[in-house]
Design goal:
The chain is α+β, with helices and mostly antiparallel strands. It has 2 domains: 63 residues; 151 residues, no CATH class. Helices cover 30% and strands 22% of the residues. It contains 5 helices and 8 strands; from the N terminus they run αβαβββββαβαβα. A 5-stranded mixed barrel has the order 2-4-5-7-6. Strand 3 and strand 4 form a beta hairpin.
């Protein structure tokens, strides 16, 4: 059976086929890029915490996902609350608090972790020690854009559904934050003992906690647990595009097979 290509089906099929194959190849390229990125982030996340650099000229891209530690004080009066956060099936919120660095660095925003829904109204005796110096350990992250179905933030009611650093700074009247935040995985109070501060000094002359000088903060907020959770579904996307290209080819050949002229034999004599 001989297939004869017709003009318009061919004009439509060839560019469409090229686009589908190109999209599949692009997804394979994205898969390789994402695999390398996840590997790099896992290496960064597995490193030991380092003192948060004081140099603000370091690009944020070079700091992202690096474990760090920083000493300073929280501005608890300027707390913000990220809503709709669930931990072990229990609804709650994330406490996000401005942090003034002891080394004179720029003001930071710290996601301190999860608390129950009623925690802001029932903080108990925790407020008595809230003005103490704290060492925060965590991972540097950048805010992610909201999804299609993410509600709008309501700064007037302190209701936040996604991090907006500039809006949060404006709503609480503090200095603008840097363009990253600390995803805290732990906190410890520092007992600044003058006679020991010299031996415990870290980068920038800031006293670092020793085992005798620190103790865990209150039970809440529950510190975050850091893991690399970037999705990498590009292989399935690539296979989808290639499958569509194959289906288009099948349809093209089936169409022309049906249009092919059939040879008949005249037996009338």
């Amino acid at each position: 059976m001989t297939l004869r290509a017709t003009f318009w089906p061919t004009v439509i099929t060839v560019p469409a086929l090229a686009v589908l194959v190109a999209l599949g190849g692009w997804q394979l390229h994205r898969m390789q890029w994402k695999t390398a990125l996840i590997g790099e982030l896992q290496v960064r996340g597995a490193a030991s915490p380092i003192p948060l650099p004081l140099d603000t000229r370091i690009p944020t891209e070079d700091l992202l996902y690096r474990p760090v530690r920083v000493t300073g004080r929280f501005i608890h009066d300027a707390e913000s609350y990220l809503l709709n956060r669930v931990r072990d099936g229990t609804p709650g919120i994330h406490v996000v608090t401005p942090f003034v660095r002891a080394d004179g660095g720029p003001t930071l925003l710290v996601n301190r972790g999860w608390v129950p829904l009623d925690w802001p109204q029932n903080r108990g005796g925790a407020a008595a020690s809230e003005d103490r110096e704290v060492v925060v350990t965590g991972v540097i992250r950048a805010p992610e854009p909201p999804g299609w179905f993410t509600p709008e933030n309501n700064p007037e009611r302190n209701e936040w559904y996604y991090l907006d650093l500039s809006a949060m700074a404006e709503s609480v009247g503090v200095l603008p934050f840097v363009d990253y935040y600390i995803y805290a995985t732990g906190e410890a109070f520092v007992d600044n003992k003058p006679e020991e501060a010299g031996t415990a000094a870290g980068a920038g002359g800031t006293a670092q906690p020793t085992a005798a000088e620190t103790h865990a903060a209150s039970a809440f907020p529950v510190p975050n647990t850091w893991r690399v959770d970037l999705p990498n579904n590009h292989l399935s996307y690539a296979l989808t595009w290639f499958a569509l290209a194959a289906a288009l080819l099948v349809i093209y050949f089936v169409y022309h097979a049906r249009q092919a002229p059939r040879t008949t034999v005249d037996d009338s004599g």
